[in-house]
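Morning!

As promised:
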Amino acid sequence: MTSELVRTETQGQAVDLPLRLPPVPWRDPHTVSPAQLKEYIQQLELACEQNPKSADLRTCLGMAHAMNYDVYKSEDALELATKLEPDHFFAHLKYAELHYRLRALIRAEQETLKAMDLATNSWELTLGRKQLQEIRRLMREGTQKPEWNKSLKRPAIYFVAMTIILCLAVYWK
Amino acid sequence: MKKKILLIAFALNASLAFAQAPAAPAAPPKAIMDTDLKSVDTPKADDRLKGDPGGTMTGTVADIAVGDAKKGLSVADVLNQIGQNKIAINFVWTLVTGFLVMFMQAGFAIVETGLCRAKNANHTMMMNFMVYGVGMLAYYLIGFTIQMGGVGGNGNLGGVNPLNTEWGFNLFGKTFGLFGQHGIFLTQGGTYDVGVMVLFLFQMVFMDTALTIVTGTCAERWKYAAFLVASFIMGAFTYPLFANWAWGNGWLANLGANFGLGKGYADFAGSGVVHAVGGLTALAGGIIIGPRLGKYTRQGKPNAIIGHDIVIVLTGCFILAFGWFGFNPGSTLGASGNGNLRIASVAVNTMLAGMTGGFGAMFYMWLRYGKPDASMSGNGLLAGLVAITAPSGFVDTIGSCIIGLVAGVLVCLAVEYVDKVMKVDDPVGAISVHGVNGLWGVISVGLFADGKSNYGGSWNGVNGSVTGLFYGDPSQLVAQLIGVATLVGFVFTFSFVIFWAIDVIVGHRVSAKAELEGLDLPEMGQLGYPEFELKARPAGVNV
């Protein structure tokens, strides 16, 4: 679907833009009945099978899975959407929002910043900015935790060396 | 010249010999007779009526209970009073330190709650609150009997003689004690006894400390009903069994008497018995329950899930550090007699190890990640305290500083290892703080015990004081390592099987819906912070 182009007129000039599904096909998750949601998910899965390269459909499927509290399926769908179309604003924004709702805030912030870089109009930029504000508010008000993004080898070696030296110091005292 | 020097040396030697010559024998002490006591002044009744603002008339010979009013005060009455004073001091000491340990529950509760998300605050607090009651019930019904039913007496608490039946088996001509049999409902077998009551209170709050460690690791996704069942079983069986082996005259305590391994397994206040048991049970629980939703990506990379209140986390750490002054010094079970004045050394060791633990963690995080991480500094303090718990009664201050410092760095490495390599989700770091450093504390007894302590001349029934490898007794380290192997081999395996069985019968995990919405409403029916905005503000598109 991403390969399909739609001819639209902007300021009197014809422009080819990629076809996009409307990004708001869902209501508040608490107002959708489980049966209705199940039906939506089935329809979306079918649509994804028929259009395996559509980032829009994967994004919608990821959102639907999230509404159904199926975190890992949602993560899979949204991750695939960002891979299918790396410039897809909503895929990145929703992927970030999923992490935000899980309170994986460091990751959520990184993904939201990526999404904001992809925003093509002021409305999208506002959506990203609001989400980023919320993420940063929670980070400010929460307890900071490191991401463990360095190797454990070197500190482990230093630690063992320190312990041996201290023990030897006591032994020879 | 040579002669002169020799003369001076001779004179010096003579003067030294004179100085070192024993003094003339002192006169033998005069025996005090009943008649001598009659002449002791007592405050007059008229003077007592005027009050005693200076405190000089309160607490005199007049306050000593007289056995036979006709005969008046006798030496026997005075001796009885001295004996009762000793036991009273020990009772009050043990009870008050037990009350301090009980208050640690509040510290654990707010540390864990602060490190979890706000949407689970009520649930986390309720687990910490009710673990006190559930554990106490289990321990009253079953646990105390298993742990202490065969301890066989304690001089500090006036005997506790009724706790004298240990069940065990014979192997290689030695008895291996496995569990006690006296003390059910604190009435069976003569256990309706004041000394037994003191012992029960003190041991009960220790057991509850071990139980509350598990709630931290399993927080934010543990079904409340499963938590109740798991805590009851741990309070009734898991903890008391190991505690019996280490403290209740069981086979680990008798490794010294039976096999000549140092003074047997020595764990002064419970790095192994309390903290490692709690931490290893938490590890088993964490593995069975699985990580929180979103903690790991599909590729297994950990996401940092941020807690909600660092202020209450550090306040909780302070409460715990305060309570630890009950935990370690109180473990003498007395302040009078039997070398118990060493409580001063125990208390200082405790505070020093906490300090170096906090520094170790803070500087480690600062050097490695650029900031002196607050929650890890708190964990470093707790790690130092956990590690010094076993050796606090046997080491000097240098040993305690080293033990704390190693613990502070070790906890940072362990948290990262558990999170990143083992992929066990532990929201509060309980496995690393209590499990890993509990084991380090047990080992450190076998290394750093300086052989200077003297609790009534023996430990675990073996004469002499506990001495570690660096002070000349490698066999003590062997006893400690057997303790570590038992903790990992028995406690972890037993807990794993229990958790697995509960998972099959009750189910540990809440539904994904409940977990994502927060456990406060679905599990507890009430939010921890009803005035807070816990749900995401709409950012344009609702999910």
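Residues 9-21, 536-543 of chain B have pLDDT under 50 and may be disordered.

Hope this helps with the figure draft.
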